[in-house]
Write a structure and sequence with these properties.
The protein is α/β, with parallel strands linked by helices. The chain has a single domain, classed as Alpha-Beta Barrel (TIM Barrel). 44% of the residues lie in helices and 12% in strands. The strands form two sheets. The protein has a six-stranded parallel beta sheet with strand order 2-3-4-5-6-7. A three-stranded parallel beta sheet has the order 8-1-9, covered by helices on one side. Strand 2, helix 4 and strand 3 form a beta-alpha-beta unit. Helix 2 crosses helix 9, helix 3 packs across helix 10 and helix 5 runs parallel beside helix 6. The longest helix is centred in the N-terminal third of the chain and has 19 residues. The two termini are 27 Å apart. The protein binds 5'-deoxyadenosine. The site of 5'-deoxyadenosine (5AD) has 12 residues, from loops.
């Protein structure tokens, strides 16, 4: 295993078979060996600085019906909401005061927000906060919308590929949602000059180590600027409500592999990681993650953006408690930083 980890570090990639071998046979000692290298790779580029992004969950209406997701269209128990443009700007105002210089507008695929309307919202954020980056996470939209938003000033786009195995994709989504379409969206976003974030869930139903190896091979090819991964966590009102969650150990192992493969990438220690274990985010950072994304959504709607059971949103992952988060990271030797934190090749 150590030979493979050394090779990954040297060559920034492995074959699918080699990834399968690593993922199916690693011991806790192998993981520690990996984390020493992956942590060093992160520290040589970013020091012990952790970037923060303010996450604004602006709508939970969604036209999609992903079998794993709590805000899927068919979940009639979800209480739906959408923020007004004024409310979105107020979130940014609050976030700016707290030291955030990146705002992530994330929502379900809510076509009530037209391409033009979202472009207007992006322009008003960029006008009010010219020193801030705007990241969008609004799912699959026509390339014309992506272009409009880019012209309006959006800097980055998050669209997880979810799984790079088309057959597995078909087991997680209804037939109308196609793997090829998702991939094409990622390719258009890259062409349009966004800093692109992709990613996947760890331990989603029917996932095998071959699927995960395929995810890594796909990401090596795509060369995204950001990669978000987190454990699958069941949501009670979905078809996968009784499936077991993904594992912390496997998730942090994958973060370590991603850090060696994409050493300059921005890798968040995600909310899902913080939800399955109280020290999940710290474990992610010690494996090479360098971003956290506290929740800046208005308090009244946070519980409604429930992608999975017990999603945390009011403790240290809440933007208003960012100073507590800072203390926790200081305890493991890291500092939060007020910086846009753009992608750069070191
Ligand atoms: N468990 C973990 N992550 C989930 N997501 C959606 N539902 C779940 C779940 N049940 C992730 C998806 C999506 C991101 C916004 O949240 O990967 O891309």
């Amino acid at each position: 295993m150590r030979g493979l980890i050394d090779k990954l570090e040297r060559e920034r990639g492995l074959s699918k078979e080699e990834f399968v071998q690593l993922l199916s046979g690693f011991t806790p000692e192998d993981a520690d060996y990996l984390f020493e290298k992956s942590r060093a790779a992160a520290q040589s580029r970013f020091g012990r600085r952790i970037y923060i992004r303010g996450l604004i969950e602006f709508t939970n209406y969604c036209r999609c019906d992903c079998y794993y997701c709590g805000i899927r269209r068919s979940n009639l128990n979800a209480q739906r909401y959408r923020l007004t443009p004024e409310e979105i700007l107020e979130c940014c105002q609050e976030g700016y005061g707290l030291g955030f210089r990146t705002f992530v507008l994330q929502g379900g695929e809510d076509l009530t927000f037209s391409g033009q309307e979202l472009a207007q919202i992006i322009r008003s954020i960029k006008n009010a906060f010219p020193d801030c980056a705007v990241t969008l996470s609004e799912g699959e939209r026509p390339e014309s919308d992506y272009r409009l938003w880019r012209e309006a000033g959006a800097d980055r786009y998050l669209l997880r590929h979810e799984t790079a195995d088309p057959a597995h994709y078909g087991l997680l989504h209804p037939p109308a949602q196609r793997w090829e379409h998702r991939r094409d969206c990622l390719l258009s976003l890259k062409r349009l000059g966004y800093q692109v974030g992709s990613g996947f869930m760890v331990g989603s139903p029917f996932q095998t180590v071959e699927c995960l190896a395929q995810d890594l091979v796909f990401l090596r090819e795509l060369q995204p600027e950001m990669v978000g991964i987190g454990p699958f966590i069941p949501h009670k009102d979905t078809p996968f409500g009784n499936q077991p969650p993904g594992s912390l150990e496997q998730t942090v192992f994958l973060i370590g592999l991603l850090r060696l493969m994409l050493p300059d990438a921005l890798l968040p220690a995600t909310t899902a990681l913080g939800t399955i274990a109280p020290d999940g985010r710290e474990r992610g950072i010690l494996a090479g993650a360098n971003v956290v994304m506290p929740n800046l959504s208005p308090l009244g709607v946070r519980k409604k953006y429930m992608l999975y059971n017990d999603k945390i949103c009011t403790g240290e992952e809440a933007a208003e408690h960012v100073s507590q988060l800072a203390k926790r990271l200081e305890a493991i030797g890291y500092q939060l930083t007020v910086d846009r934190g753009d992608f750069k090749v070191h």
